[in-house]
Design a protein that fits this description.
Mean pLDDT: 90
Largest sheet: 2 strands, antiparallel
Helix content: 55-70%
Strand order of the largest sheet: 1-2
Length: 140
């Protein structure tokens, strides 16, 4: 984690301030720089660009938007559904080119398509069930 913090600081996305305390060792408290905040907000509203990243990145986006910008939750979900449908279109086109063959590539492609379909189904469920998302500790 410290290596990642150092990289973010080198890129000017965060800055650290040493916090002295007589009861424990000094620690560095990090905060976003204006450039870091701008990049974070840009990432927050950009659909996940690859299915393999969906499970991690989208859930982070979902958490932050639901906690700090709940009015933009519908837009986040809609944009991700559109991106998922684009993935499906690309997968369907490559399936059509090898529709008569059932080789390993076709099996893999079919599996990917079904994974993306489950993402679309879940996102649609999320969109249609407008419940307030609480934080992991149940705080509102």
């Amino acid at each position: 984690m410290y290596a990642q913090l150092a990289k973010l600081a080198q890129r000017g996305l965060i800055s650290g301030k040493l916090q002295e305390n007589e009861q424990r060792p000094a620690r560095t408290q990090y905060s976003l720089t204006p450039g870091g905040k701008q990049q974070f907000i840009s990432w927050l509203h950009t659909p996940v660009q690859h299915p393999r990243d969906f499970r991690h990145d989208f859930f982070l986006q979902l958490y932050f938007v639901s906690q700090y910008e709940p009015g933009k939750l519908d837009t986040l979900v809609e944009n991700q559904i559109e991106t998922c449908r684009s993935w499906q279109q690309n997968l369907a086109e490559s399936q059509e080119s090898s529709a008569s063959l059932v080789d390993f590539a076709t099996l893999t492609n079919r599996f990917r398509y079904s994974q993306v379909q489950s993402m679309v189904d879940w996102l649609t469920w999320l969109k249609n069930n407008k419940t307030k998302i609480s934080s992991p500790r149940g705080e509102q």
